[in-house]
Design goal:
The chain has one domain: tt1808, chain A (Alpha-Beta Complex). It starts with a helix and ends with a helix. The chain contains five helices and 14 strands. Strand 10 and strand 11 form a beta hairpin. The strands form four sheets. A six-stranded mixed sheet has the order 3-6-9-10-11-12, sandwiched between helices. A four-stranded mixed sheet has the order 5-4-8-7, with no helix packed on it. It is α+β, with helices and mostly antiparallel strands.
């Protein structure tokens, strides 16, 4: 089975869990400035080499990130970040907005052993011990991804599984085009389960912060 067939099969398996999305052909990058992209890379490589494009590492493989985000994407990210930032001001947690490196260790937190480095649109970290000057080393508690036409495949396939395996407690996927916000919560078996669809009309959507309310109607009125 070739790579594209494998990706399509994975997509079909996840489709019932997630939602119908724009099927963009997003695959590993074909070139970087120095190393051979067919190889496997660690955070040590990611941190020291100069890639031609903004990239992420998923299981040691290099993936090109989407081009500059759209105005709609930036509006959604900005509003959600602002709401979370205000809410968390008096709490022992911090929220970060991309570009912000999240290193997900497997067996060791050493740079040479880390093979997954992602840049979620927004993430919330409750444990300050996971933070250093280069970002977050460890699993964020909440990850928020805002979909755009160039990144649906990665969020649907690669990152969903990456975040689930890493133990992210809540994964929010915002789809501005369909005006949906999907929330997935890690259950006791370490698997994401749907917490429902929020249509931006407000109300609590977080099990970690049940008194956090998000109403995006004000943003909708600007579109």
């Amino acid at each position: 089975m070739d790579e594209k067939s494998s990706v399509n099969e994975k997509y079909q398996q996840l489709k019932n869990k997630l939602y119908e999305a724009i099927e963009d052909d997003i695959f590993p990058v074909s070139h970087v400035s120095e190393p051979d992209c067919s190889g496997s890379y660690s955070y040590a490589d990611y941190f020291t080499l100069r890639f031609e494009d903004s990239v992420e590492l998923i299981g040691g493989r290099v993936f090109r990130m989407s081009p500059a985000p759209s105005l709609t994407h930036q509006r959604w990210c900005g509003l959600i970040f602002a709401k979370l930032h205000c809410y968390l001001t008096e709490k022992e947690a911090e929220v970060f907005i991309a570009p912000f490196d999240v290193r997900l260790p497997h067996l060791s937190s050493g740079d040479a052993e880390i093979v997954t480095v992602v840049r979620p649109d927004i993430c919330v970290v409750c444990d300050p011990e996971k933070l250093d000057e280069r970002g977050c080393v460890g699993t964020p508690d909440i990850v928020v991804e805002v979909l755009s036409s160039g990144n649906n495949w990665r969020e649907l396939i690669d990152k969903y599984k990456v975040y689930e395996d890493a133990g992210v407690k809540e994964y929010w996927i915002v789809n501005p085009k369909r005006k949906h916000l999907f929330v997935y919560v890690l259950n006791e078996k370490g698997k994401f389960q749907s917490a429902g669809v929020n249509m931006y009309t407000g109300g609590s959507l977080s099990t970690l912060f049940p008194d956090f309310n998000l109403n995006l109607e004000e943003l909708l009125r600007k579109q």
